[in-house]
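pinned: reference chain
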Amino acid sequence: MIKNLLITSLLCSMIIYCGCKNDASAEEKPSYEEYMEDYEADALKWGMIDTARNIIIEPRFDDIHDFEKGSLIGANLNGKWGFINEKDEVIIPFQFKAITRFNDKVALAQKFDNKWMLINERGDSLFTYKYQELRFYSEGLAPSKFGNAWGFLDKKGEWNIPTRYDKATGFKNGWAVVKTKGKYGIIDKNVNTILSFEYESIKRLNESYFKLKKDKKYCITDVDNINKKQIWFDKVTDVQSGYFVAKDQDDWHLVDAKSSKKVKLLAYDKIIYGDENNWICKKENLLGVLDIKGELLVEPKYKVLQQFKNGLAIVQKENGQWNYIDKNGNELLKSDLPIAFDFKNGFARRLAANGMGIEFINTKGSIIPIGNFYEVKDFHDGLARFQNI
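pinned: its structure tokens
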């Protein structure tokens, strides 16, 4: 069924592949007619509900994007994509074959002649896209590929930084990670080198820290002291609250992120980033929880223990059943589940007790029936997509 031609989002970035259109014979149908001839809409339509299960957007769409506060919502009506707001008002008419979500106040939209263009929040075309690949805009620029090289386009479609890189990521706080001659470095918008091109990979962890890889070793560096003396480890986690965990030879250590000095030896087989100021520890193939300073909160006793979301983590017990625990190891539900989903916006989906459809659990463990809906997706910024019966 042709119902969703969205371009896939990868590593918090989006890549668009634009094919060349073949010469058309006089007998060929226009692209729009070909598309609509094969288009098959689902009989169950999509809308949006809030956390109190009030219908905010009536279920009249063939497809709809997740809600993101402050941004327009992409929706498909009778095979054509457009944009609405959270009041269900049409802002950009339904006229496109495919669209992306808005980022930095612009989005890509494909017309039925298969050409892509950049549009603003009024639906005005800023330029027609003619390059092989384009990623999300950030700080007014987007990484774009032409030929075999990457550069940066502005919102007029002009090269702000000409194509010269093997790979490129978007700018954040004035810096971008790029690759040239097989090595990664960091540049600013004036193409000054902030961090030299000598690394196998560079990952921006957050506003303050980068993870670097060189000679199969890893280090953490902060933006305020990007060229400080680098201390290398065999493995490192992401940073949270000024700490990361690193493996040095056979031992795991809690490490101060600013100085890269070891703070505490962690006597476990493995340490994993646990989010929300927790670390997941592994001992004898079972998992437990440490607090941000490496103190034990939950003894290792679970087969699976996922990152914390909304103060709760999914766990699988040795009997194969699933539940949720808080940071002190208290289980949320009296009865285990055959499968569990992450909490988002204070709710987690679960299979209904009767085996028919989906219902929700809140962070107190109460069951929230979804009402007379066929399907409900996760909540995003207080709204969830749903299909009515």
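why pinned: Confidence is low (pLDDT under 50) at residues 1-27. The CA atoms of residues 208 and 223 lie 5 Å apart.
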